[in-house]
Design a protein that fits this description.
- By secondary structure, the protein is of the alpha/beta class.
- It has two domains: about 200 residues, c-terminal autoproteolytic domain of nucleoporin nup98, CATH 3.30.1610; about 200 residues, Rossmann fold.
- The protein is about 30% helix and about 25% strand.
- Strands 2-3-4-1-5-7-6 form a seven-stranded antiparallel β-sheet. It has a seven-stranded mixed β-sheet with strand order 10-9-8-11-12-14-13, with helices on both faces.
- Helix 7 packs across helix 9.
- Belongs to the methyltransferase superfamily. HEN1 family.
- This is Small RNA 2'-O-methyltransferase.
- InterPro entries: 3'-RNA_MeTfrase_Hen1_bac (IPR024026), Hen1 (IPR026610), Hen1_N (IPR024740), Hen1_N_sf (IPR038546), Methyltransf_12 (IPR013217), SAM-dependent_MTases_sf (IPR029063).
Length: about 475
């Protein structure tokens, strides 16, 4: 089995630091399925490639009882595709050999571990009964450019057609830890055949590896079912835990099963209180043309659309799949004035002239998902290029985390958060941005205020024209 990871991030040889494997050495590791080798076919300043080769002995797997019983007939225990086709055996090996890299740790280059870098991944023989279309459905929503070429049964006899295997090539700009976690989950999903006993521990592994990206994946039910070998009880538990992944520990989901907020709750959730505070600030600013930057699936957009005082509404998100979900949820095709609302694909860290000249830009629970080195680019894009009259930013108050017993000490509220600011840190950032771009700043607590640690959410209103 073979998988290669390449980057052109300069210096490219720093990939060795991220993987904790030196480019000048060939290293071997004993794993459950056999022997794993890590080597670097190329490693210079402009391009670096790491190759993981897993040598599997299918006979030894059966003799040592480390493999499953076979594929329905006794010979299938010995004659199969395990020596060369990527499967759950390779995923397990990735998790062991690159365990530290998958956790996003790199003491030698911590800033690089937190940075999205250009990556290319190749799996030359990947079993996929669903064909290339399934591969694209699983990887494309995660930001990858996908090329899945069917492998011919025999190039000498093209009339025989293609096999159930594909030659997979991925290209994208992600953190290495994200890429590894996605491979760890999706390789066995595509194979759809776990090569070891599936127990309740596998649910924990799925949540740890996929918690940052799986909750919003359009194929999460299929991924969950296949990863857990179609065991309904485990799949139901995993889906319930994925639903609970939110930025509000210990609070109920803000949506009812039909996707709408409950009108019966007497005490609003923090998300509802946050949206109410944003709407109040927009009304106070007299904003009628609003951009929701990092709109997600449209929680705030839905309330903006319902208020006719907002005459032009734009939702922006980097993920096309999220925008499709927002479009379905808002039923934009059914709106009487479809020109009033637009959904655009874009990034919070790139200047976008389409967003210039609006009354207000909202960044609700967005900045904490941005790598700290990119915050300067975010500020330049929003306050410099877009330059609205008002900007509203909300973000978690890290000090308040101690009030949630369900949140372990030192943990962030969401696995994709890059940081969480204290009140002093948020004040320093917002005051600095305001001074740099000519905005007055006012900060407002959102949610129940604790005398010691403040409110759970911090809100800042930036008004242009200091």
């Amino acid at each position: 089995m073979l998988v290669t990871l390449s980057t052109t991030h300069r210096p490219a040889s720093d990939l060795g630091f991220l993987l904790h494997k030196h480019p000048d050495r060939v290293q071997c590791f004993d794993v459950a399925a056999g022997v794993a080798h890590v080597m670097y076919p190329e490693a210079d300043q402009s391009r670096c490639t790491a190759a993981l080769v897993l040598e599997v002995d299918p006979v030894e797997l059966v003799r040592s009882a480390r493999g499953t019983a076979g594929e329905g007939f006794s010979l299938g225990q010995y004659v199969n595709d395990r020596p060369y086709a990527a499967s759950s055996l390779l995923a397990v090996t990735l998790g062991k050999v690159f365990a530290t890299a998958m956790k996003g740790r790199c003491d030698a280059r911590p800033e690089l571990a937190a940075t999205a870098i250009p990556l290319e991944i190749r799996v030359p023989v990947l079993p996929c009964p669903g064909g290339p279309d399934l591969v694209r459905r699983l990887f494309a929503p995660l930001g990858w450019a996908v090329i899945a070429t069917p492998v011919e049964l025999d190039p000498a006899f093209p009339e025989w057609g293609v096999s159930r295997y594909v030659d997979l090539r991925l290209a994208g700009t992600l953190r290495l830890a994200e890429a590894l976690s996605q491979l760890y989950v999706l390789l066995p999903v595509l194979d759809d055949a776990k090569h070891y006993w599936v127990s309740g521990d596998e649910v924990d592994k799925l949540i740890r590896a996929g918690g940052a990206w799986l909750p919003g994946h359009p194929e999460r039910e299929l991924i969950t079912a296949r990863y857990l070998a179609h065991q309904r009880g485990y799949a139901a538990e995993a889906l319930a835990r994925l639903d609970a992944l939110d930025d509000r520990p210990g609070e109920p989901d803000e949506r009812e099963p039909d996707g709408h907020d409950s009108a019966d709750r007497r005490v609003p959730t923090l998300a509802q209180a946050r949206r109410a505070a944003i709407l109040a600030e927009l009304a106070s600013a007299g904003a009628t043309r609003v951009v929701d930057l990092g709109c997600g699936e449209g929680n705030l957009l839905r309330e903006l659309v319902a208020d006719r005082s907002f005459t032009e509404i734009v939702g922006v998100d980097v993920a096309a799949r999220v925008l499709r979900a927002a479009n379905r949820r808002l039923r934009l095709d059914e709106l009487p004035d479809q020109r009033r609302v637009r959904l655009l694909q874009g990034s919070v860290t790139y200047a976008d002239d389409r967003l210039a000249g609006f009354d207000a830009v909202v960044l609700s629970e967005v900045v904490e998902h941005v790598d700290p080195p990119r915050l300067g680019a975010l500020a330049a894009a929003v306050f410099g290029t877009a330059a609205p009259t008002a900007v509203i930013v909300t973000t978690p108050n890290a000090e308040y985390n101690a009030c949630w017993e369900s949140l372990p000490a030192g943990r962030f509220r969401h696995p994709d958060h890059r940081f969480e600011w204290t009140r002093a840190e948020f004040a320093a950032w917002s005051d600095g941005v305001g001074a740099e771009f000519g905005y007055r700043v006012r900060r407002v607590p959102v949610g129940p205020v604790d005398e010691r640690v403040g409110a759970p959410t911090q809100l800042a209103v930036f008004t242009r024209g200091a």
